[in-house]
Amino acid sequence: MKLKKLTTALILATLPATGVFAAALDRSGQSIAAFLQPGNYFEAGISVLDPEVSGHFKAAPSVSTGEMADDYQFYNVALKLQPTSNFSFGLIYDQPFGAAATYSPTALNVFNNAAGESTEVEVETQNLSFIFGYQPTENFNFYAGPVYQTVKGNVQLRGAAYGGVTAFGGYNANIGEDSAVGWLAGFAYQIPEIALKASVTYRSEIEHEVNVKESSTGAGPITAIINNPADTGSTDITTPQSVNLDLQTGIMADTVAFANVRWVNWKDFSIRPYKFGKGSEAASAAATGGLYTKGFNLVDYSDDQISATVGVGRKFTDHWAGNVSVGYDTGAGNPVSTLGPTEGYWSVGLGAQYSPAANYFIAAGVKYLMLGDATAHSGAYSIPGNAVAAQVAEFEDNDAWAYGLKIGYRF
Fold it and tell me: Domains in the chain, ordered, with CATH?
């Protein structure tokens, strides 16, 4: 079987440019597919996710939490240059991790206070990957490079789910933007004649030391700890390491099968702002009569995430190509944080590409995601003997739609 290189490249470009409602804070999937395109290449894309996530309170099963997952969009841009047959350079911008959630003021004061203020969270990251590749032969590609990352966010906790006004029910955290550097490395193998291409990419964790502006509008000893101006300290946030495995192969003329598997080390990820940590230590000591004083995290996860997507892409004419895919995400453990109460997903996706000329294209994709059911808990879940009491809501039968648009140009 012989497949032309250009035909293979065009089929690959039809993969949906959509992000997913993945486990924990995962968004973009951190693909480097653009860097593995032949020759000089540029692409830019936008992804939009429209989730519908709601549940009911464990203490009052007939009462809904209301819709809490906000719509969001994110962007990616990639440039790949091949100055010689043996050396290549890539620059990829994406927004790999994030969160966006707001609980409705009607949510029975479990996630809100008497003033109508809602529990809210917004987390944003940006990555700029510099990739240097060496191709000793047509078949092998070894690559590595630094990754520059920024992170920022805002969190507002309200209501009885966080201990009401006497504990963390009035807590606010503004995570100022911080930048840090990590790295990636990997290799790819290809046999162009049969459209075979396989790659493995490792991305390191990236350690941030951020200044978090913390305050509380509540009352009681926890609020006094959080609002103490004399006690200051930095907060460590380490975004997780990950591995991506990508595979494609020709299965007939103008047709390829593809697969992506991704592992993200969420089990070792946590966010514990400095004063929140001090307050949680006091709260855990009070709850256990001094037997447990280690406190708890604002956000953490119990399992690593593994996700997989498989599908088929086909070129129909010189101008049109398309693909179909199915996906699965394990989630990052259950129970989950109230700030992101879903546990993995199943998905189906469709993609289409129109190529007015051989050197450029416009691609669009859509995915439907069936989100996994989850039990949501507050951070106090980790206090010994408090696991059941800290479970506040059940989230079931939720879903999401993801849309993507991408343009690509070869030069």
Answer: 5-410 (2.40.160.60)
Per DSSP bridges, beta strands 398-410 and 360-371 are antiparallel
User: What pLDDT, on the 0 to 100 scale, is given for residue 21?
Assistant: 59
Residue 288 in tokens: 């256990």
Stretch (H or E) spanning 152: strand 140-156
Strands 345-357 and 336-337: unpaired
pLDDT per position as a tens digit, 1-10:
444 444 444 4
Strand pairing class (87-94; 235-239): unpaired
pLDDT tens for residues 100-126? 999 877 656 788 887 778 899 999 999
pLDDT digits (tens, 9 = 90+) for 171-186: 999 999 999 999 999 9
More confident residue, 31 or 4: 31
pLDDT at 15 over 60: no
- CA dist 22 and 155 (Å) reads 20
Token pair of 189, please? 């193998």
Tell me the mean pLDDT in the region 283-306: 92
Strand 41-52 relative to strand 336-337, pairing: unpaired
**DSSP letter string, 223-263:** HHHHT-TT----EEEEEPPEEEEEEEEEEETTEEEEEEEEE
- Give the Cα separation of 94 and 129 in Å (integer): 9
Q: Give CA–CA dist 268/265, Å, rounded.
A: 6
How many other CB atoms sit within 10 Å of the CB of residue 35?
A: 27
Q: What is the pTM of this model?
A: 0.94
- From the list 102, 21, 19, 98, the residue with the least C-alpha distance to 54 is 102
Residue entry with tokens 């106090």: 380
Q: How many residues does the chain have?
A: 411
Q: What is the dihedral of CA 281, 285, 290, 295, to 10 degrees?
A: -40
